[in-house]
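In the laboratory, one determines a bound structure by crystallizing the protein with its ligand and collecting diffraction data. In a computational setting the workflow is compressed into a single prediction: the sequence and the ligand go in, and a structural description comes out. We illustrate the idea with serine.
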Amino acid sequence: MSGVNEIRSAFLDYFAANGHERVASSPLVPRNDPTLMFTNAGMVQFKNVFTGLEKRLYDRAATAQKCVRAGGKHNDLDNVGYTARHHTFFEMLGNFSFGDYFKDRAIELAWNLITREFGLPKDKLLVTVYSQDEDAAALWRKIAGLSDDRIIRIPTSDNFWSMGETGPCGPCSEIFFDHGDHIWGGPPGSPEEDGDRFIEIWNLVFMQFEQLGPDERVSLPRPSIDTGMGLERVAAVLQGVHDNYDIDLFKALIAAVENVIGSRAEGEQRASHRVIADHLRATAFLIADGVLPSNEGRGYVLRRIMRRAMRHAKLLGAREPVLYKLLPVLVSEMGRAYPELGRAESLISETLKLEEKRFLQTLDRGLALLTEATDGMEEGAKLSGETAFKLYDTYGFPLDLTQDALRSRGIDVDLDAFKTAMERQKAEARASWAGSGEASSDAVWYPIRDRVGATEFLGYDTEKAEGVVVALLREGAETAEAGEGEEVSVIVNQTPFYGESGGQLGDAGTMRGEGVTVEVLDTQKVANGLFVHRARVVSGRLKMGAALELEVDHARRSRIRANHSATHLLHEALREVLGTHVAQKGSMVGPDRLRFDFSHPKPIEFSELETVERLANAVVLQNEPVETRLMAVDDAIALGAMALFGEKYGDEVRVVSMGTAQEGEKAGRTYSLELCGGTHVKATGDIGLVHVLSESAVGAGVRRIEALTGAAARDHLREQEARVRRMAQLLKVGPGEAVERLEAVVDERRRFERELAEARKRLAMAGPAEGASPAQPKEIGGVSFVGRVIEGVAAKDLKGLVDEAKTALGSGVVAFVGVAEGKASVVVGVTPDLTDRIDAVRLAREASAAMGGKGGGGRPDMAQAGGPEADKAADAVSAVEALLTAL
Ligand code: SER
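The predicted complex, in structure-token form:
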């Protein structure tokens, strides 16, 4: 049972058997505490449960929690590697009671586990209690049967645990293991307590208070229990070793370092092996939890850890990136307990390789500079702050790396001068913003960005987190607070809200704090990484410094995600169908639909669109995980990742890959590979369905497609189907026969129209008179005249009728007025024998005038005209008759 993996399981099994819920470790980036850099104890994920803010379905829990302590209250990065028990990353085993059991049961559970399950001899154990905690002392006597000399009262804050400046806290009781008198040291509280003989293995915190501020502490609603046992420490005890780095897990990692670099973990090199083994764990777990190396915030702490490991690899003789080669060993040791490690393996590996490659390029030059600058310096001397700053600024040496490099020679850095140099550089950077084009439009944002730093974006892997308001604006000016109904711009130190960029719209959602609710309408990314939440205070007052629960509108974000991932698939499918000249020209990814513009010289055939849609949906159905990696931009492009032309990318880029190509020359390889900073679905199946709506032109050589995904696509298709059903109903057939039936109906209609026209003609020639128009020719001054109004005959058919009438008449004048769709038209015909006396054009004009019309045209034997007042059609015939009479 002594391997690290077995000890972890035994601990969790024991507490599960004792009625505890087995809860998974929370991520290293705390979602519920913006003041905390990393999760540093098992209780962090339960902070709000202790304070009563949050309810869970259980009131006892047990965890193995990933923790990072790298600087700040709990650890000093510089010590790691040089001592037996300092780590940046470690696992904390803990059991928790939320108002359920308290001191007695906590002590009993702990004592039984270590003495019965783990079998530690009682005479090797002793405990401490807070000096005023008589209860705890009495319980140890009673439950464990420990004599008074083994229950040590500690008067200092050592036995009062708190997670940080604020949060739940309480007196604690620690269990120590005596490694034996061959190691120097005394029990806690003794003058030799700093020795290494007596080692704390378990801390039982009797959570009773909540620290609100430096001088403000309140009681928790219900006394609770939080315990923490360092897994590496207890493993050392159970494996009979004194040093954490000698446990099975670290032995495996250190052996891997020896193999990969080809150096022995002996003598002076020992520390370097340990640094690398420890830092590899922190690096891998941080990256798996969404942190990437950068120059600010958490990313910078990660970069410091990575670079420190890299410098030690260099010290051991590594000439090229090596750290990523150790990763498989870590994954095989810890990947079963923490599957996220395996899932993120390629991301971790690429990130390590990239960081190491870049750092190695400057490391030699930086180290040479450092050697030169410290040449001849004695122990106790100080390196100039300017040099330390140059190393930082030009060579990427974090300050503690420089300090670490000088440590063995006893040389310090002039910290004041370093800070001055840093301030000066910031001031210069500020001044240069004022001159850039971007600065003028963002004049208000840059000073804020400078003051509060870039916003840390947590939204790639969470939609909920806490943040603290670091800037608040109303009507474009900073303000200390804002009230109900007011529109504000809110900036917080970290956020899960995506700021609009790369075509993807910003997130909406809510922010809630004590007595205040804010609706986030949109989020914008401005001034080099500042996330601005455009929001409205729904109730209460929003104040600077307020701690807020930030929650992205999940449904909206999910739709955006599906649309964004679908855009990538469509992009690739378009290239496959239309050709590789297709390049992205723009896109809009919103919650309702997506739009994708691309270069292509001509309209897209419907059948081509169908193929594009089919290809994209085939990848959706593969339902493979969407992978995101961080790479050097050149490597990404060499891999074939699609980038936007003319887009400025940083040195490092996110590369999103989706699906496996089934056809063509790429068969078997990644289907879509794109540089992209957006948010995507977890697996392609989450897109549900891609449906292309339309294709259109947006400019010379640029086409646009619009598409829907998921429920929106389904709803759209449902509506279309409803239309087909309705159509079928009207046609009185099943939906399957509707098209055929409709074709028949259309044919029939054409036939009817033809027949109707024929019938009208016949009617015109022979049918009964309409209105006052006579059917038989009239004699007017020796000229035969036929004049009629014909309903339902359009202008285009009149001429034929007039011709026929002329022929039938032999000699005479014909005037037909057709009325169709509220319009009247007249055609007048004169047989050739009469054209020298009678002009058809004149007659047509006269007829038109009678119907409120003007003009008319034609030849003397055939003319036509129109008239707006169709109800006066009979008058038009009379007008022709009257004119003939007058001739
Ligand atoms: N929170 C306490 C610690 O970190 C016990 O879990 O030591």
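The first helix runs from residue 4 to 17. Keep in mind that any predicted model is a hypothesis to be tested, not a measurement.
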